[in-house]
Structure formats: C-alpha cells, structure tokens
Amino acid sequence: MTDIAGRYRKRAPGEPRAVGYLYILPALAVFTLFVLIPLGRAVWISLYDWDGLSVGTWAGFRNYTTLFTDPELRAPFANALILLLFFAALPIVLGLLLASVSSRVRLRGLTFFRTVLFLPQVLALVVVAIVWRWIYAPDGLLNAALRAVGLGDLARGWLGDFHLALPSVGLIGTWVETGLCMVLFLAGCQRIPRELYEAARLDGAGAVREFFTVTLPSLRPEIAVAATLTIVAGLRTFDLVYVTTAGGPGDATSVPAYEVYHRAFETGQVGSAAAIGVALTVLVFAITLVVTRLIEGREK
Amino acid sequence: MNSHGERLASYVILTLFSVIALVPVLGVLFTAFSSQRSLRTGFALPDGLHLSNFADAWTRGHFGAYFGSSALVTVTVVLAAGLFSILAGYAFGTMRFPGTTLLFSVFLIGLTLPEEALVVPLYFDLRSAGLTETYWSLILPQTAQSVAFGTFWMRAYFRSAPRPLIEAARIDGASSWTTLWRVLVPAGRPAITTMVVITFMWTWNEFLLPLVMVSSDALRTVPLGLVFFQGQHSAEFSLLAAGAVLVALPVVIVYIVLQRRFIEGMLTGSIKE
Question: DSSP letters along B60-115, please?
Fold first, then answer.
C-alpha cells in the first residue's frame, strides 16, 4: 500500500512521465534552433577565413592565436578589462560605502530611493548613450560645470580624447550599475540581525572592524550577485560604445562586443568576428564561475 | 559614530546618488519640452511646454512607425517566450523524467551567454533562409534567448508551489494540463508578472539584433530608429530628446507601476540552488 503511494508521489502530477518531454518541447525547440545551433555554428565559422560572401578557407585555430599576437585584437580585450573597473569594481565599492553607514540603522523611505537609484537600469542603453554624449560634448554639461567652478582649463571633448575616452565611457557604466549595487546591498544590510553588531561592539570593535567582521561577510551573497551581473554587463558592452564613440578615437574604446560587429558587418572578417564572440563567451563563463566560487565557495 | 549620525550619513549618500541618477534623465525630459530653436542640450529648465516636439518626432521622425514595429515584436516575443517558459518550467519544476538535470543545465547556458557570440551565425544563416529583413529575424532569436531566463524563473516558482495544491487537484482527477492552467498559473501571477516585465524590457530595449538584421525603415524598432535619427539630425536636440523620451517611456511607466517585480527579476542574475 505504502509502496503504491510512494510510487504515485514520484510521478507527480499523475500522468505518464513521458508527458514531461511534451511540455519542454516548444521551449527546447526554439532554444536549440536559435541559441544552441548558432553557438555551434559560431565555433565552426571561427575556424575559417571568411568574408561572408565567397567560399571560406580553413584557418584552423589561427583566428584564436591572433587574439594573443595581434595588437589590434589585444586592445579590445585589454579595454574590456579596464572597463570592468568602472562597470563592476567601482559600483561595488560605492555600494559598500553606502552599506557601511546604513547597516546598523533602519532607514525609512527606502522605496523612493530604490526606485530612483535603480532607474538607470531600465533605460534603453541607446538612450543612456545619447544623453551622455551631450554631457561629455565640448559645450556639454560637464564642461559647463567645470567652467562654473573655475576649472575651465580642464574642459575638453571628453569622448574625443585619446586617454580619457575609455574612462569616460566607463563612467557611464558606473552611472548605470551603481544603483543596482546600492539597491542590492541596502536590502542585504536591512537583513543583518542587529545582535551581530551588538556582539561585535561588546568585543570592542570599532566601525572599521565591524564593517570587516560583520557587514562584509553578511553581504557575501549580495556581492556575488552584484559582481556577476555587473561583470557580465561590462564585458558585453556594445550599445554604449557603438553610439558614443564607435570604438574611437583610434581603437581607444574598442571592446570585444563592438569588434565582433565591426569585423563581421563592416570589414568582412567574419571568421575573426566569430572567434572574438566565442572567446568573449568563454571569458564571461570563466569569470562568472570564478567569481561565484571565490565569493560564495567559502561559505560551504 | 552614533546611530543618529549614521542615519544622517546614509541619507546624505542616498540623496547624492539619487541626484546623480536623476540629472541626466531630467536633462532629456527638459530638452524634449524646450522649443526647437533652442540650441542648448537642455539641463536647464525648459522655456515652456512644447509638446510639438513629440508630434514632430512621431511623424517626421517616423517614431510612430518604429513604435508599431517595436510593439509587434515585443508582444509576440513576450507571449511566445512566456507560454513556452511556463510549460517548460512546469515540467522541470514538478515532474521527474530521465534527463531532467541535463536538459535543464542546457537551458542554464542561455542565462549568461553573450548575444554577441550568436549574432554572427544568426545573421548569415537567417540570410540564407531568407529571413533577414523580416520581423521573424527579430522575434525568433529573442524568443529563444528569453526562454532561458523564463524557464529558469518559472521552474523556481513551480518548485516552490505548495505540494498540497497539486495533490488536491490530482485527487480530484485533474490532468497535468488542467492542474497547470486552473490551479498553478492563477496562483503564480506574481512570478509570471515578473517574467513578463523582464522579457518586455529586454525585447523593447534590444539594439544589436535589429541593427544587424533589418535595414529597411519600415522594420526598424524604436532603439534602432532613435540611433538612426540621431545620425541624421544630430543638431535637433529637442526632437532627438523627444524621441529618446518616447523610447524610454513605455518601460519606465511599467517600471514605476511594477517596481518590485522589475528589481526582483533583474537581480536574479546568479545561478543558485
């Protein structure tokens, strides 16, 4: 009797198991056709020299080895890693700054702040890019602000400057991602039991030690989520670069995602473009895996 | 520091960052309402309420047509991806059959897979199939990409759905299909809403795919139309700003109404069990 009941429970809810495949079929079909097969095709194309029109010639792994040897291809990856400072590191630090002061108190009006801080996340990136082009323009808001406080000498066309274009694009990323980190950490802080702080204080901990012994460890899951989301967003930057600088001046702001588009659809180096795309995918998976392991692994 | 000082410091930081988040947004809004003759890029209070910018953008800037394309693509993707995700999430969340773990981990690949890797083969293969320059080239790939998140999200809901609810339906003799649509879907409205708004936002804001797949003006979605318009009329600030507001507005309205659902869905970035 119990045996039958047990078997019954296993095949919830009451139909032959095979019906499960039917439920999955539509999702799996569309996912296979338009994600899995293209992914395989990307790997295949990356092994050829192909201009997108004529017949490609076998290139083996050459499109991958040149990623390391060709300075024109190393630059976008180096730029992407620098952008991560602005897209991931800086927003997390700013978020933690807020967390460090708000962890021991209960705050009111959080809904309002959360709505405003999170707003940049929901705006289309092309809109964000157009607004920031205006801010960075030679006669834009940033230069006007600098002149107003007597720092007019610093005014310049920010996105046209060889050394400052990349940090300028990066700061747009900081503007987009900081709210996300703050909202995450703020929610995390409100969850930390206050007894932990009282215990730390009894042990004679100051504000700094409290941050490192209580706040930071308690926020570990939130930091993992923030790091994963911001790093993936940073590595995938395309819209921002396309609209603000088109990779320029020179290749100062070129990033892998932009280089994929540029090579595949503007200069006819389709094999190389596919290789960059595949390399970017590997990089995204590797970094997210390492980050999640590093931040969450110690918990277990 | 005492707790009074800390609270004050928190509010100062929160206010400072809120202002930084709002200034660019208000800048566009003010510019969009300024007269077309003003050559400033806004960030000052508008010189009146010139709604004509929006009418101009709608007709002369073709934003009316772009809206139509975006609406068609977005509604189709949201409906198709939503339906497929509910079905797949239901199977992964409540049923056991050989290969569940393997099949589900295949979907997980889609969660962080950068679209940039797919866009090259997608373009050339859809071109061979005669599908570029059609809405299908925008709808099919985006449905597939949204299904990964949707299945992951809906599976979590169905796993957490109360067992007694499912068992009761079963004892009443309901089939798995009836149980899903009569019992679990009505009870799962919050989870489904989250999935819908996230898919809506992704599809509405998508730029790379339309940039690559379509070149005819009639098929352009709003983000693509905005960038194209900017290339043509970069000096017409108020018109461009009105266009930018039109692009952002639908998502921002839904965001303000369903803020909690948005944030909840967007923060589910890391794969956790």
Answer: TT-HHHHHHHHHHHHHHHHHHHHHHHHHHHHHHHH---TTHHHHHHHHHHHHH--H
Residue ranges making up the domain that contains B25: 3-50
CATH of the domain at B85: 1.10.3720.10
Structural domains of chain B, count: 2
pLDDT in tens, A67-96: 999 988 999 999 999 999 999 999 999 999
Domain shared by B132 and B70, yes or no: yes
Q: How far is CA B81 from CA A239, A252, B199, in A?
A: 24, 38, 8
CB A170 within 8 A of CB A83: yes
AA identity, residue B230: Q
- pLDDT tens by residue, B222-231: 999 999 998 8
Chain B residues near residue A273 by CB distance under 8 angstroms: 120
Residue of A nearest to B263 (CA): A118
Per DSSP, the residues of A167-194 read HHHHHHHHHHHHHHHHHHHHHHHHHS-H
How many CB atoms sit inside 10 A of residue A107's CB?
15
Instruction: Report yes or no on B129 lying in a domain.
Output: yes
Contact A183/B141, CB-based, under 8 Å? no
The domains of chain A, with CATH numbers, are 70-297 (1.10.3720.10)
Query: Looking at chain A, how many residues does it have?
Result: 300
Tokens of B263: 């944030």
Residue of A nearest to B13 (CA): A98
